[in-house]
């Protein structure tokens, strides 16, 4: 099973992915860490406190890395990197800008990076990209505002189990 968990940085993609990975015995790829581990970045943007990379290079490397694997979960906000993967299920996590702001402050993001990510969440940039690249039938939007971590995991697990049992 191939699963994508996406959303603006800070919404909880990696936390959820780790729980789903354990429950369903999937390989987990946190794309930002993967880019660092495989030395796929080209430079560091100090203003946005982020690594820069060539999308085509990362996409090709990832495709080669996964070519013999059908059971994985990828978490990323950069969905254009994974647009050529035929995912079975795609989850886009959304959260209120107030909660996201607090989380980004806790991560000690600089103000320009916080602003960029809050705006991306308000305008639904990641969700828009997901619908641009993938089949609507496999996409689930999960609003986190009222969900605790356990409830989120249960909701997503239920959707995955329904998919497995269909």
Explained architecture:
- This protein is an alpha/beta fold.
- It has one domain (2-161): Rossmann fold (3-Layer(aba) Sandwich), CATH 3.40.50.
- The chain is 47% helix and 20% strand.
- The protein has 7 helices and 7 strands, in the order βαβαββαββαααβα.
- The protein has helices spanning 13-24, 31-37, 55-66, 97-106, 111-122, 125-133, 149-164, and strands at residues 2-6, 27-30, 41-45, 50-53, 72-76, 89-94, 139-143.
- The strands form 2 sheets. A 5-stranded parallel β-sheet has the order 2-5-1-6-7, with helices on both faces. Strands 3-4 form a two-stranded antiparallel ribbon.
- The two termini are 13 Å apart.
- The model has no long low-confidence stretch (mean pLDDT 94).
- Interacts with small ribosomal subunit protein uS11. Not a structural component of 43S pre-ribosomes, but transiently interacts with them by binding to uS11.
- This is Adenylate kinase isoenzyme 6 homolog.
- It comes from Anncaliia algerae PRA339.
- Pfam families: AAA_18.
- One of its GO terms (biological process) is rRNA processing.
């Amino acid at each position: 099973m191939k699963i994508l968990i996406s959303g603006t940085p800070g919404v909880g993609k990696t936390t959820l992915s780790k729980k789903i990975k354990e429950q369903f015995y999937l390989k987990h790829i946190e794309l930002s860490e993967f880019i660092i581990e495989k030395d796929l970045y080209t430079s560091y943007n100090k203003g946005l406190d982020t690594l820069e990379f060539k999308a085509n290079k990362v996409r090709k490397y990832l495709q080669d890395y996964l070519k013999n694997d059908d059971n994985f979960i990828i978490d990323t906000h950069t969905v254009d990197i994974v647009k050529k993967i035929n995912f079975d299920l795609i989850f886009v996590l959304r959260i209120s800008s107030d909660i996201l702001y607090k989380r980004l402050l806790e991560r000690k993001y600089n103000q320009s990076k916080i602003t960029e990510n809050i705006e991306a969440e308000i305008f639904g940039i990641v969700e828009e990209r997901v619908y641009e690249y993938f089949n609507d039938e496999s996409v689930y939007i999960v609003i986190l505002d009222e969900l605790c971590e356990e409830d989120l995991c249960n909701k997503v697990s239920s959707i995955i189990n329904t998919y497995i049992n269909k």
